[in-house]
Amino acid sequence: KAGVTQTPRYLIKTRGQQVTLSCSPISGHRSVSWYQQTPGQGLQFLFEYFSETQRNKGNFPGRFSGRQFSNSRSEMNVSTLELGDSALYLCASSLAGQDNQPQHFGDGTRLSIL
Amino acid sequence: GQNIDQPTEMTATEGAIVQINCTYQTSGFNGLFWYQQHAGEAPTFLSYNVLDGLEEKGRFSSFLSRSKGYSYLLLKELQMKDSASYLCAVRPPSGNTPLVFGKGTRLSVIA
Question: How many CB atoms lie within 10 A of CB A98?
């Protein structure tokens, strides 16, 4: 069974640009969550999608957005990039996002802002 | 809200036992997860506790005390490949709410 796939693995952008990251969940998983990971803050929750609907949202500015498609694949977009957006962006999928179901993570996209 | 504390770094010797603690202060609780993350790789699921007590899985065990807001991950017979970050994550009480992660404990296993 293929795991969670994130593309691209690495990305370099400059301030003010925008970026789109992609996540393909494990087959059959309908819940997709996005996290930002930095050395100082650890894993910070961005948002969760389930059946093409945003079900939960973390405390990030509106520059961070996402969506989910009918095949459960998800994308997140960051507009007007800032230096502080440099981080590892992780996507995680689970069957339905319920309490006892573990999330399965992709290898992440490492975004560097110059 | 949720507040989760873990030690930042730990060092242990190959073949030894190490215990990584996690304490949480929450307005409710609905389960606790442990994940392992090697440098440059994805976090991988290790264990899930929702009831008090010890869950054992081979060399790894996880313990939970809900009344104390406390969990630990116990790693036995340490191997060099166990050098990684260990993340504690709590599920808040409301249904379908996102996990809240601690900042992780970086474990270094030395010879």
Answer: 11
Q: What is the dihedral of CA A27, A25, B48, B25, to 10 degrees?
A: -150
Say how far residue A20 (Cα) sits from the centre of its chain.
10
With CB atoms and an 8 Å threshold, state whether B102 touches A56.
Answer: no
Q: Express each pLDDT in A56-89 by its tens digit.
A: 999 999 999 999 999 999 999 999 999 999 999 9
- Kindly report whether the peptide bond that precedes residue A8 is cis, defined as omega within 30 degrees of 0: yes
Place of tokens 């869950």: B55
Q: What is the rounded (10 degree) CA torsion for A60, A54, B51, B6? A: -20
Tens of pLDDT along A15-57? 999 999 999 999 999 999 999 999 888 899 999 999 999 999 9
CA distance B62 to B51: 11
* Beta carbons of A100 and B50 less than 8 Å apart: yes
CA-nearest of B87, B79, B73 to B110 is B79
What is the DSSP track for A9-48? Answer: SEEEE-TT--EEEEEEPPTT--EEEEEEEETTTEEEEEEE
Please check whether residue B104 is in contact with residue B89, taking contact to mean a CB–CB distance below 8 angstroms. no
Q: Closest partner residue to B48 among A56, A97, A102, by Cβ? A: A102
Residue A90 pLDDT exceeds 70: yes
Among the partner-chain residues B42, B48, B97, the one whose CB lies closest to the CB of A107 is B42
Q: Which residue of B has its CA nearest to A95?
A: B96
